[in-house]
Amino acid sequence: MLLLFISILPVIVILWYIYYRDKYEKEPLLVLLKAFVGGLLSAIVTILVLAFTLKYFPKSENVFLASFYESFLEAGIPEEFFKFLFLYWFIWKNKAFNERFDGIVYAVFVSLGFACLENIMYVFENGVAIGLVRAVLSVPAHAFFGVVMGFYFSYAKFEPARKREILLKCLAYSMLIHGLFDFLLLYASKNASISLGLALTVFVLFFVFVFFMWKLGFRKIKQLSDASKVSDADIMKDEI
Fold first, then answer.
1. CA-CA distance, 179 to 173, in Å (whole number)?
2. What span, in angstroms and rounded, lies between the C-alpha atoms of 46 and 181?
3. Cβ distance 44 to 79 under 8 Å?
4. How many CB atoms lie within 10 A of CB 192?
5. The overall pTM is greater than 0.85
6. How far apart are CA 55 and CA 209, in angstroms?
7. How far apart are CA 70 and CA 74, in angstroms?
8. What is the pLDDT of residues 124-167, one digit of tens each?
9. 221 close to 150: Cβ distance less than 8 angstroms
10. What H or E segment, with its residue span, contains residue 28?
């Protein structure tokens, strides 16, 4: 029970925060549950797809290339792709998706549905210590990836003339940031036993990246939470 509690508590806390920030019209709980389940399903699909495809792509023994491969090709790109597919499939045409902040709400619920299943798997396999680390790093990071995806997902909804262009940004930015987050952490970890100085340098870069990532994330949340009724031009003037 302790491992399950550690696995799901950070997910619940962040979901409550995002739900609380939805000021104008709370989203229906059934639709939020649908989004969360979509995230769970996206995790299952990602695991199955990677299980069948990764064996055809040999890994490099080079630390940099191996870290890049694992961060982008095993994590950032496929995970964000399948999150996006289920977000679009479950939410795009839903009538409850009628305000700009809704995009962030639903994308975070999908993203944390994914993170919840992933976290349970990692914590039950590796124990309490990993659960505590993931509670302050990995789970909040997934929420941030959802904020970025949801920001552009919402803008695409309310700017249909540029739908395709903005949805590509929705995917590209979330994949890029996810990949960079994983790469910096993984590359630093892999170098810890090879070059302590390089590892420490990359760890510093990682935490600087995390700081600016969260600064950007809270700014995007504030933009759409406090100004849900303003024009798209005003929202996007602070575009990534």
1. 10
2. 19
3. no
4. 13
5. yes
6. 31
7. 5
8. 999 999 899 999 999 999 999 999 999 999 999 988 889 999 99
9. no
10. none
Tokens of 14: 């962040």
Phi, psi angle pair for 57, to nearest 5°: -120, 95
Give the separation between CA 83 and CA 145, rounded to whole angstroms: 10
Q: What is the mean pLDDT of the chain?
A: 89
> How far is residue 144 from each of residues 63, 157, 158, 221, measured CA to CA in Å?
27, 20, 21, 10
Closest CA to 177 of 224, 138, 141: 141
Q: Which of 106, 189, 182 is nearest to 141 (CA)?
A: 182
How far apart CA 222 and CA 215 sit, in angstroms, is: 11
Q: Where are the alpha helices (DSSP H) in the chain?
A: 2-21, 29-53, 63-68, 77-91, 100-126, 128-136, 138-158, 163-191, 196-226, 232-236
Q: Residue type at 219?
A: R
